[in-house]
Each structure stands twice: as structure tokens, then as C-alpha cells.
Amino acid sequence: MRSRYSAFATGAADYLLATTHRSTRKQHDKAAILDWSQTNQWIKLEVLHTTETTVTFQAYYLDAHLKAQIHREKSRFIFENGQWFYVDGTY
After folding, report:
1. Mean pLDDT over all residues of the chain?
2. pTM here?
3. Which of 2, 24, 63, 71 has its CA 20 to 30 A from that of 10?
4. Distance CA 12, CA 71 (A)
């Protein structure tokens, strides 16, 4: 989760797609990821709760108008071939 947050903060859209599970990868658009990543100023990640396959977190950022925002999500992951992959999340 922390590496994906860092990827959002640095605009590493290729990494975000590569670490998204193949079953849901088609649902993600590289241009949209890059736009959301670069439009916002990422401040910090707060991990609230974890289980073996989920991470509940809050990501703090400033939007394009410099208004403080919080993205809260419970993300689901799958461990496959020695690597964790993001599947989906509920907001």
C-alpha cells in the first residue's frame, strides 16, 4: 500500500498499473491515473487497519484548488506469484 501511495505521489502510473491485478487492470485508465496523481499535491498516508488481504487507509492531499481533501478507502489485495496486487477498493 505504501508503495502505491508513493507511486500516486510521484506520478508512477506504470507502476500502479503493473501492481493492479490482471482481473481488474482493464478498469483502470493510465491517463486518468496520471491526471489524478499530478493534479493533486499528496501530503501523507495514514494506514488505519490491515488484515491479511485488506488495507484501510486515508490519503491526505490538496486538490487543484489547494483545498484539503481526504481519500478514505478499504483496498483489497491478492498475493500471487510472490507479489501483492491491488484488486479493488471501497470508498
Report:
1. 95
2. 0.88
3. 24
4. 18
SS3 62: strand
Q: How far is CA 47 from CA 14, 23, 27, 71, in A?
A: 23, 25, 25, 12
> Strand, coil or helix: what is 22?
coil
Show the domains of the chain with their CATH numbers: 2-90 (3.10.450.50)
- Surface-to-core class of residue 76, CB atoms within 10 Å of its CB (0-12 exposed, 13-18 middle, 19+ buried): middle
Residue 64 neighbours by CB under 8 Å, 6+ apart:
39, 40
Q: Taking residues 15-44, what's their average pLDDT?
A: 93
Q: Which residue has the cell 481488474?
A: 24
Q: Are 39 and 64 in contact (CB under 8 A)?
A: yes
